[in-house]
Design a protein that fits this description.
This protein is mainly alpha-helical. The protein contains 6 helices and 2 strands. About 60% of the residues lie in helices and about 5% in strands. The protein has a two-stranded antiparallel sheet with strand order 1-2. Strand 1 and strand 2 form a beta hairpin. The radius of gyration is 13 Å and the shape is globular. The model has no long low-confidence stretch (mean pLDDT about 95).
């Protein structure tokens, strides 16, 4: 059974903000991702090969970055389960919408 975690405004702001320079995500296609919105944009436009590089063969680079650096365990779980780039992008889109709703 999933536990319910309340997200406060400051948590939502932190998760949506830019990560410090030393914690950015270096994508194999040369992109540098600093926040969740940049991750979403990258997932929308990267090749399936780039997605596979970071998420196949036991790798969960996107999920690990979101969990360890951004600090969003729910999105990390969703990304870990995502079997396609489009599914991953939808998960990130939904999470951004949810977190953004906490800023109002």
């Amino acid at each position: 059974m999933a536990k319910i975690v309340r997200i406060m405004r400051q948590d939502a702001e932190r998760r949506l903000s830019n990560m410090p320079e030393e914690y950015v995500f270096w994508c194999c296609d040369g992109r540098i991702l600093r926040n969740m919105r940049e991750l979403k944009a990258a997932l929308d436009t990267m090749t399936d090969e780039t997605f596979a590089y970071h998420s196949d063969g036991g790798k969960s680079d996107f999920s690990n970055w979101v969990k360890d650096i951004i600090g969003d365990e729910k999105l990390a779980r969703d990304l870990h389960k995502a079997t396609s780039r489009t599914r991953a992008a939808k998960s990130v889109t939904a999470r951004i919408a949810f977190l953004s709703s906490k800023l109002v």
